[in-house]
């Protein structure tokens, strides 16, 4: 026991010493970017796409000269599908001197990371980190959890619904009776709220609201029956994965021909599982290779030359995010080190011109304002996906300012000093 | 009859070598903050928490022979209780210093454990396991429903508040706090086995019918043991809450319940410290190997299968057997067996890692990208610091030879 106590005492001065402090942003330091993503285990099939895309995006930035005359360093951290491991990886990334971390796979993990970011930046004002969110859409990330160093470079429930409603209405595919069917967790509830909120602008009435268990239901025929009983003109759903595929099959099996507005029909596995039942259904997303015209084609081919395959939408979103970051980095005067406070300010001011419009950050809540392509599923597409002959044909583009949701009242940004 | 009671659960190494082991281990834990970087301290913190959780789980199994498949419920209850307390402290409505926060988890685990334990321990064996599983699934299904209690998928966050000049902002201070509580928890679990209640619980595991015949209220004994186990699990959860400052309902899922089971049976359920060995090994494995390769789950699975097949007593059982042999004057024989096991394990590991990494590289997105850019059908693989052709016959032959040789050595070592 005496031995133990002595060694405890001798280690006390070390314990009380402040954490090893790196000199803030030495100008010759390379910029370090990392993804914290689920790369192994369940969920990795879809989530790692964001990491693959980010890797390619960083490689493109490096091909264009990197940052500050040095190549940008890139690393990957495996969140292993849980928030607990994600928290551990966040601290590993902070210890490794990562300046910018990227996550897109899950709103739950993003919710953990944004809290870790808040605490880290509060405790280490000399080496703050930046969180680039390439795919987590929970409203709270730009609501009550919003953070000046978190940038949501993707859509959220309200943006998706506003774009879907605007384009479907213009197509005459919306009608006046809409059914909302969603998964019973924050994303699905966000979607239901958004569908209800857009009713006045879309000129429809929400005739049925369904929230069902997430990823547990094997038979959607009772829900198909409820949808049929409501006699809707259109259905809008935020479902993804199995819940989307099974829902579409049940609706098709029940012989219903109603137009569907969806958000994740383009994720790997959805179209192949839904089969022909998906033809004609709508989807709102930032990227569509056909809508991007010649530039879209170049992007697809260039990506294939680098990565061997055409990119999924998730990969393109990650690449676009890196290009947006590239714009911000290019706006900094030469000789600026990887100073995250200045990079964050540059991100707020950055603009990226896409063939369909401009991408820019809204300063009040760090939500990206971007145009959305609304497309529908056709057979015999030029860019077939998911091993089917189906793909997405654009039907309209909704400009960013029209699609973006109003700033949430719950967001109070603490501006960096 | 008392002889058999003393023998079976106590497949422990001789007391002197055990004392040396414990002393060395504690010393290492105490000087670790001075040696390790923040990253490894993080991993060590996780290892401590997983160890305490596995010890708590094994309390039930080792004493009462009750196998719980739902201990995540009590671990999670401890986490949520602690996070709520920390949030209250952050908001200024609760005046509890951070070092005492884990008590909230202990309390929550104990209360939930008392209620659920009284229910679950009415049955034994498979039925008991099913009831514990059902309870944890029930708690898990509440997760998405009560937003203010569980905080939805992104969960609840809190911040460690400074106390007495400690900011608790860096990994060292958190490590010391977790270490203190984990050691206290482990000591309490050890002492539990010494109490009359703990001895009776052992007897329940041996022959419950006989105890009941003697007039013992075995249900009460099992409930009390369950409650103690749940309280220690809650304490472990509380420590994770303090370290993570965040919790969400996914902690109630099957993965969290499976972890202590894996740790315990890989480490060795028959000895008190066996689960610690398993927890430390697997936590370190997930953290270090998990960062180096995506195949870590595969390797962990192979490891689990090998341990269960070749060493049913777990790793601690192997160590104990070796130590007992050398104490019996068969030191040379024990040493030879150890060398054989190590050599065999090394050879098998090399072969499996080579095959696994090469195949995963060939199937990876980066490789298909390399295939597209170089135009070669099988461009060289760059893995493990080498560049080699994935079709190299000599390398594959060497791997196959290493695998076969390793298995032969292991079988030879296991022969009595």
UniProtKB/TrEMBL annotation, chain A:
**Gene3D superfamilies (UniProt xref):** 3.40.50.2300
Query: What InterPro entries does the entry give?
Result: BCAA_transport, Leu-bd, Peripla_BP_I
Q: Which Pfam families does the record match to this protein?
A: Peripla_BP_6 (PF13458)
Signal peptide feature range: 1-16
What residue stretches are annotated with the Leucine-binding protein domain? Answer: 30-379
Q: Keywords of this protein's UniProt record, alphabetized? A: Amino-acid transport, Signal, Transport
Record bears the keyword Transmembrane helix: no
The family line of this record is: Belongs to the leucine-binding protein family.
Name of the featured protein: ABC transporter substrate-binding protein
User: What species is this protein from?
Assistant: Siccirubricoccus soli
Automatic annotation (TrEMBL), chain B:
Instruction: Specify whether DNA damage is a keyword of the entry.
Output: no
Residues of the signal sequence? none
Membrane-topology descriptor: Multi-pass membrane protein
Location of this chain's protein in the cell: Cell membrane
- Alphabetical keyword list: Cell membrane, Membrane, Transmembrane, Transmembrane helix
**Transmembrane portions of the chain:** 46-61, 66-86, 98-120, 172-192, 220-243, 302-323, 335-355, 393-410
Matching entries from InterPro entries are given as: ABC_transp_permease (IPR001851), LivM-like (IPR043428)
Coiled-coil annotated spans = none
What Pfam families would the database entry show?
A: BPD_transp_2
Q: What is this protein called?
A: Branched-chain amino acid ABC transporter permease
């Amino acid at each position: 026991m005496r031995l133990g106590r002595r060694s405890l005492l001798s280690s006390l001065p070390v314990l009380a010493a402040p954490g090893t402090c790196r000199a803030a942003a030495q100008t010759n330091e390379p910029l370090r970017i990392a993804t914290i993503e689920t790369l192994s285990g369940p969920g990795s099939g879809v989530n790692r796409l964001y990491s693959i895309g980010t890797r390619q995006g960083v490689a493109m930035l490096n091909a264009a000269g990197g940052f500050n005359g040095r190549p940008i360093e890139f690393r990957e951290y495996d969140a292993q599908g849980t928030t607990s491991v994600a928290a551990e990886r966040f601290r590993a990334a902070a210890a490794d001197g990562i300046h910018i971390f990227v996550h897109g796979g899950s709103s739950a993990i993003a919710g953990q990371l944004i809290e870790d970011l808040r605490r880290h930046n509060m405790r280490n004002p000399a080496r703050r980190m930046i969180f680039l969110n390439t795919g987590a859409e929970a409203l709270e990330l730009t609501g009550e959890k919003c953070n000046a160093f978190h940038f949501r470079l993707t859509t959220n429930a309200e943006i998706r619904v506003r774009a879907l409603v605007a384009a479907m209405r213009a197509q005459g595919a919306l009608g006046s009776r809409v059914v909302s069917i969603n998964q019973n967790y924050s994303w699905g509830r966000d979607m239901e709220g958004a569908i209800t909120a857009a009713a006045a602008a879309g000129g429809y009435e929400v005739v049925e609201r369904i929230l069902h268990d997430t990823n547990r239901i094997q038979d959607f025929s009772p829900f198909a029956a409820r949808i049929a009983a409501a006699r809707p003109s259109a259905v809008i759903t935020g479902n993804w994965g199995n819940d989307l595929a099974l829902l579409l099959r049940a609706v098709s099996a029940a012989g219903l021909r109603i137009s569907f507005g969806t958000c994740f029909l383009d994720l790997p596995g959805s179209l192949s599982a839904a089969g022909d039942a998906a033809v004609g259904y709508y989807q709102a997303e930032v990227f569509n290779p056909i809508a991007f015209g010649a530039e879209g084609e170049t992007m697809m081919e260039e990506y294939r030359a680098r990565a061997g395959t055409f990119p999924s939408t998730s990969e393109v979103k990650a690449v676009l995010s890196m290009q947006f970051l590239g714009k911000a980095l290019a706006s900094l005067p030469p000789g600026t080190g990887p100073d995250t406070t200045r990079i964050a300010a540059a991100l707020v001011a950055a603009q990226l011109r896409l063939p369909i419009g401009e991408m820019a950050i809204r300063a009040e809540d760090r939500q990206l304002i971007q145009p959305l392509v609304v497309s529908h599923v056709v057979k015999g597409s030029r860019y077939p996906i998911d091993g089917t002959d189906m793909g997405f044909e654009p039907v309209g583009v909704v400009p960013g300012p029209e699609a973006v949701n109003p700033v949430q009242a719950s967001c109070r940004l603490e501006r960096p000093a | 009859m008392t002889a058999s009671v003393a023998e079976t659960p106590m497949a422990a190494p001789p007391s002197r070598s055990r004392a040396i082991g414990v002393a060395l281990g504690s010393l290492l834990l105490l000087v670790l903050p001075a040696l390790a970087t923040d990253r490894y301290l993080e991993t060590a913190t996780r290892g401590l928490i997983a160890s305490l959780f596995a010890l708590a789980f094994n309390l039930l199994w080792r004493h009462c022979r009750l196998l719980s498949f739902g201990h995540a419920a009590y671990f999670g209850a401890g986490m949520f209780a602690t996070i709520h307390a920390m949030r209250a402290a952050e908001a200024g409505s609760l005046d509890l210093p951070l070092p005492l926060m884990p008590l909230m988890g202990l309390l929550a685990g104990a209360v939930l454990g008392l209620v659920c334990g009284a229910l679950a321990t009415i049955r034994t064996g498979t039925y008991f396991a099913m009831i514990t599983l059902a309870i944890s699934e029930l708690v898990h299904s509440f997760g998405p429903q009560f937003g203010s209690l569980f905080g939805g998928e992104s969960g609840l966050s809190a911040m460690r508040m400074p106390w007495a000049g400690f900011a608790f902002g860096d990994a060292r201070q958190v490590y010391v706090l977790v270490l203190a509580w984990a050691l206290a928890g482990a000591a309490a679990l050890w002492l539990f086995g010494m109490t009359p209640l703990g001895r009776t619980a052992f007897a329940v595991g041996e022959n419950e019918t006989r105890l009941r015949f003697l007039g013992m209220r075995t249900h009460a004994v099992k409930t009390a043991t369950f409650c103690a186990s749940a309280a220690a699990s809650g304490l472990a959860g509380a420590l994770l809450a303090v370290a993570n400052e965040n919790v969400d309902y996914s902690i109630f899922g099957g993965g969290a319940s499976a972890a202590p089971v894996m740790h315990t049976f890989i480490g060795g359920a028959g000895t008190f410290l066996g689960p610690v060995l398993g927890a430390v090994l697997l936590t370190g494995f997930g953290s270090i190997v998990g960062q180096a390769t995506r195949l870590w789950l595969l390797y962990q699975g192979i490891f689990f299968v090998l341990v269960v097949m070749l060493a049913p007593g777990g790793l601690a059982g192997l160590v104990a057997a070796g130590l007992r042999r050398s104490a019996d004057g068969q030191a040379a024989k024990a040493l030879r067996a150890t060398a054989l096991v190590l050599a065999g394990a090394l050879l098998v590991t090399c072969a499996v890692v080579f095959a696994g990494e090469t195949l995963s590289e060939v199937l990876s997105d980066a490789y298909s990208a390399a295939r597209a850019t170089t135009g070669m059908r099988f461009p060289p693989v760059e893995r493990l610091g080498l560049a080699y052709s994935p079709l190299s016959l000599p390398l594959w032959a060497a791997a196959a030879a290493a695998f076969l040789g390793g298995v032969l050595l292991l079988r030879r070592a296991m022969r009595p």
